From TrEMBL, chains A, B:
It comes from Nocardioides renjunii. The keyword Cell membrane does not apply. Belongs to the aspartokinase family. Keywords: Amino-acid biosynthesis, ATP-binding, Diaminopimelate biosynthesis, Kinase, Lysine biosynthesis, Nucleotide-binding, Transferase. This is Aspartokinase.
């Protein structure tokens, strides 16, 4: 009877009734003989409301104070969950990120966890309490300041606690039944995956599936924490993120951790949050491309796909295209404009009417022909491919924004991912 | 140029505009060359909203979690005040009670401050920052749990900080202009006091004036902190609480700290929050009264006035009456009913249609005839006196609830407290 770590997002804690339902679920696990540690997000729209309050007093609030403000959200929800548990006759102790020993670096607004020292948690567990921890927050190692972990932070808190406590499992409760082969709003016949590997989940998260945050999956993989993504609104089994599931062409015997679905492909992800910038007419000399990417790095911009065309022999000029988050578009264009004279490029093109469609599966590693089947499906659906990027277990293409749905559906069908029956689910992102 | 400590209550921080106004006021003091440390309450109705949330999930929430919940209120307001200050081009650092070094005992919901270790505050001051501290909250010395100080807590936080930082003054900002000779809603001609002594202020607070909390005044007296009660909605001088002001019949030379008003009487306070219990027919033997008050003490009930009649010689029975907060009425009646057989009293009477009117002034110590003038004024106004209690600088009477206003007005006039002109103010309580 080990420790179970659970995470509940804002949509699972929207109001008093939701909080009571979560408390009953927590108590059930405690009754079954496990110790329970729960990471919670802020209730429903609390974070948005707090951000509105901040912008009401200052257009550009200091990051330190923004963290101080936002961390009030989990403080409220964790105390309420503890109260609801107490009302069921069990005892609970809530702890802030700082009290729970979530130690971070000191980058306000997007701090990274560098250690977890869960002394107060283990003491409370030892005393028989259920432990509720504020997600999304920590305290900086050097300055002892309150920090927040940024988007998906509570998922990361949960997995980090599971690692520090050597928990049996980290259950991520959300408002959908698990991880699907595609967004069911686009592909009604999408199937829920029973198992998915860490690396597949990483690629899915990186390619636009909002169900689990990248950092949470990375943390889980590094420490080997089984993650179970499931709905707080049902008792159904969700999706278990585990070590690389055995493939049909591998000889290992199936175990409980091994998926029996034998998928070559885990799913089709899509992302409409990126934009594409093309730097036209870059002199094809050593160091020019480096100068461009240095300028973008200095502006703290994370690039995704990068393509450089072969230079036209007559001119010795080349074009460099890359994709980046739309929210960084303006910053990137400004940074590049500043170095135009120095680099001597011709002009900049900006396109945010694009979408990315990604095919992901650990099985594609050993299966030739995946790429041609993928591109064939897109061609049959009349979808034009803009840029291409691949990894060992992923192929991504940039297409026209309006072609994303067609591309996802055609790919999903081409790889036999469609379920026999359509499941009625709503696919949505988790809060923080 | 020393340190100025300020306190702003919830009504001064009701919304974004109010917070910006408070920030401007804080910055003015900083500009004048002082270091500024500010204790803030939760915004407007935040605390009530949080209490509603709690009762929504549990009818009897654990005190520890209630403290965890309520402390989110000041966390929000302090971050917003710091942001608003930053928007004015100054830097501010907000600190929770725990970060600010407000060390308390471990009684959740009504913790007492036992020490203040303001290391982070003095460091922030040294770095040139304005410091904003969450009022009403602290951290327990032994268990390191988050605690709240109970009613009036932020006033107490402010004075405790002023003492620890050896501040020049502790300014308590509220929604009225200061301390008045009576509640202006009852006595429109009530005057604002320019000065009042700690002991007078203590009696006023204990007798129903809600402008400053008792514990705050006690703290101020013990450490000799000048307290300035004033309005956050005007630039007027308020009321300064100082050491005993010189009286006209004393020979000390007037100084800045000495009031020139020469009042024998500081004011008339009233309180409608008490009830009266009479234990009828108590056997007049040694130990019977002690047993009654022991039972009440065991039930954690604070008594105010106590009267025991002379026993009727024929029966050797006596009646014992006392007043207590109405909110404790039910508990007290239950505790007394439980010992009826043991004590052998006849019956219990409960009356919550009473009010207390108190005449307060350090000058009455050396002035005979105050009592007779007070009682004469009440008699002329047709007010019947129920119970009487006195201290060195106070006379209190219990009257019929409906006679309170008449009693206050008659007393105010009899002691020449009426102002020539009526000031337009609203007299209200401070939040917490």
């Amino acid at each position: 009877m080990g420790i179970v770590v659970q995470k509940y997002g804002g949509s699972s804690l929207a109001d008093a009734d939701a909080i009571k339902r979560v408390a009953r679920r927590i108590v059930e696990v405690k009754k079954s003989g496990h110790d329970v540690v729960v990471a919670v997000s802020a209730m429903g729209d609390t974070t948005d409301d707090l951000v509105d309050l901040a912008t009401g007093v200052s257009p550009l609030p200091p990051a330190r104070e923004m963290d101080m403000l936002l961390t009030a959200g989990e403080r409220i929800s964790m105390a309420l969950v503890a109260m609801a548990i107490s009302d069921l006759g069990f005892t609970a102790r809530s702890f802030t990120g700082s009290q729970a020993g979530v130690i971070t670096d000191s980058v306000h607004g997007k701090a990274k966890i560098i250690d977890v020292t869960p002394g107060r948690i283990t003491q409370a567990i030892g005393e028989g309490h259920i432990v509720i921890v504020a997600g999304f927050q920590g305290v900086s190692a050097d300055t002892k300041e309150i920090t927040t972990l940024g988007r998906g932070g509570t998922d990361t808190t949960a997995v980090a606690l599971a690692a520090a406590l050597e928990a049996d499992v980290c259950e991520i409760y959300t408002d959908v039944d698990g991880v699907f082969t595609a967004d069911p709003r686009i592909v009604p016949s999408a199937r829920k995956l029973d198992h998915v590997s860490y690396e597949e989940m990483l690629e899915l998260a990186a390619c636009g599936a909002k169900i689990l945050h990248l950092r949470c999956v990375e943390y889980g993989r590094r420490y080997g924490i089984p993650i179970h993504v499931r709905s707080s609104f049902s008792q159904l089994e969700g999706t278990r993120v585990v070590n690389t599931p055995a493939r049909p062409d591998q000889s290992s015997a199936p175990s409980e951790e091994v998926t029996m679905e034998q998928p070559i492909i885990a799913g089709v992800a899509h992302d409409r949050s990126e934009a594409k910038i093309t730097v036209v007419g870059v002199p094809d000399k050593v160091g020019e491309a480096a100068r461009i990417f240095e300028a973008l790095a200095d502006a703290q911009i994370n690039l995704d796909m990068i393509v450089q065309n072969i230079s036209a022999a007559a001119t010795s000029l080349t074009d460099i295209s890359f994709t980046l988050p739309r929210t960084d578009g303006q910053t990137a264009m400004t940074a590049l404009a500043r170095i135009q004279a120095e680099v001597g490029y011709d002009k900049l093109l900006y396109d945010d009417k694009i979408g990315k469609v990604s095919l992901i599966g650990a099985g594609m590693r050993s299966h030739p022909g995946i790429t041609s089947k993928f591109f064939g499906a897109l061609a049959s659906a009349g979808v034009n491919i803009g840029m291409i990027s691949t990894s060992e277990i992923r192929i991504s293409v940039i297409v026209d924004e309006n072609a994303v749905d067609d591309a996802v559906r055609a790919t999903h069908t081409a790889f036999d991912l469609d379920a026999d029956e359509v499941e009625a689910v709503v696919y949505g992102g988790t809060g923080r």
